[in-house]
Specification:
Elements (H helix, E strand, L loop, with lengths): L1 H28 L7 H22 L4 H23 L5 H22 L1 H5 L12 H12 L1
Helix pairs in contact: 1-2, 2-3, 2-4, 3-4
Length: 143
């Protein structure tokens, strides 16, 4: 269980790093994005997803797990665009609710594959036995 929690914390830290680094670059390239709250929120979600995906690649996770986690992170924001465009929620609510829901959807994605997230994830992709190799082996066995 400790490894599962540690993995979740690592993912959140990678998201924050992505948001900080890429968000800083956006501010240099297009500072006016702050004046467009919906675009800014979607850019922030993308930055966090890129940071998390990069960390998962470094940790040796396979494409399927990275795509699943990326979808889990972006889905709340995309779904909240519906009530936003209907005038039911504000852009501020989109940002706040999207971030909160993202934490839960990430947890859900991890719980769906809890076995993959509970074992030691210190194996880097260039070493034998990394997550990508384990996932590939499991896929072959399942077919």
């Amino acid at each position: 269980m400790k490894r599962f929690v540690a993995h979740y914390v690592e993912m959140v830290l990678a998201m924050l790093a992505g948001m900080g680094i890429l968000g800083g670059l956006w501010m240099l390239v297009w500072p006016e994005i702050m004046d467009r709250p919906v675009l800014h929120t979607l850019e922030m979600a993308a930055d966090m997803t890129i940071g998390m995906a990069a960390w998962m690649v470094l940790r040796g996770h396979g494409r399927r797990m990275i795509v699943e986690m990326s979808a889990a992170m972006v889905a709340p924001f995309l779904l909240l665009l519906i009530p936003l465009t209907a005038g039911v929620i504000s852009a501020d609510t989109l940002m706040l609710a999207g971030h909160v829901l993202m934490l839960f959807t990430m947890l859900g994605a991890m719980l769906l594959r809890r076995q993959d997230y509970m074992h030691h994830h210190g194996t880097w992709p260039w070493r034998r036995g990394g997550h990508a190799e384990v996932e590939e082996r499991n896929t072959v066995l399942a077919s």
